[in-house]
Every structure is written in C-alpha cells, then in structure tokens.
Specification:
Number of strands: 6
CATH class: Alpha Beta
Strand order of the largest sheet: 4-5-3-6
Structural class: alpha+beta
Largest sheet: 4 strands, antiparallel
CATH architecture: 2-Layer Sandwich
Number of domains: 1
Oligomer: single chain
Distance between the termini: 21 Å
CATH topology: Alpha-Beta Plaits
Number of helices: 2
Radius of gyration: 23 Å
Order of helices and strands: EEEHEEHE
Length: about 120
C-alpha cells in the first residue's frame, strides 16, 4: 500500500507499505537499416526470452527514421542537377516483464547479425 503525503512546499513523498512489490521491466530497443534482418533478430530475442518463461510485450514498431541527403551531380556547369539519397532506420521495442537472471544471461550471450544495434534498459 502506498500513501502520499504533501509537505508545506508542495513536494509529494510516497511511502511504501509491506504489500508493495516493484515490478521490474527490461526494455530492449532494436535498430537496423534493413527490416528483414531486424525482424529476424527480434524473433530470435523473443524465442530466447520465451524459452525461459518470460512475459513479453511487443515487438512494437516505432516510426522509421529517414535521413535524406542532397548532393550536387556536378560542381560548376550543371549546378541545378542534384541527386537525393536516403537512409532508413527501422526500430522495434520489446518489453520483458519481471525477467529472471537466467533470461538476462541468455539475452546477453545472444549473437545477432551485424548491422543490428541493441539498447537494453532496466525500467
């Protein structure tokens, strides 16, 4: 049971009782340039977590980040001729609720393909 008290300055403090449990969550953010490699690595992460009986929320697709670059084709004569290039960064978020130490160890030992960036945060 959580009780909140307000001090004279307006700062709220919370006190935890005997029945409170802190729910830990492991948030995994996966980024890659190619969506097929990203989906395969997310599937591999989910299979590993399910093998150790973890509760999973996701994968939640985040908006694709698009970076566009405009380059002149010629430097002097054809100045108005330009080319555009873009890089797409695909993102997914996976939440693992109340992970065991075995689950965390299995996820750290997981080998994923190159080009996949992983950010793991304890919430």
């Amino acid at each position: 049971m959580t009780t909140k008290t307000t001090s004279p300055k307006g700062v709220t403090k919370s006190k935890k009782g005997k029945g409170d449990e802190t729910a830990s969550c492991l948030r995994i953010r996966v980024r890659a340039y190619e969506n097929k490699i990203l989906d395969n690595s997310v599937k591999q992460i989910i299979d590993t977590a399910l093998r150790y009986d973890a509760k999973i929320v996701g994968p939640i697709p985040l908006p694709t980040e698009i970076k566009k670059y405009t380059v002149n084709r010629a430097s002097f004569v054809f100045k108005n001729a330009r080319e555009q290039f873009e890089i797409r960064i695909h993102k997914r978020v996976i939440d693992i609720l109340n992970p065991n130490p075995k689950t965390i160890e299995a996820l750290t030992n997981l080998s994923l393909p190159s080009g996949v960036d992983i950010d793991v945060k304890m919430m």
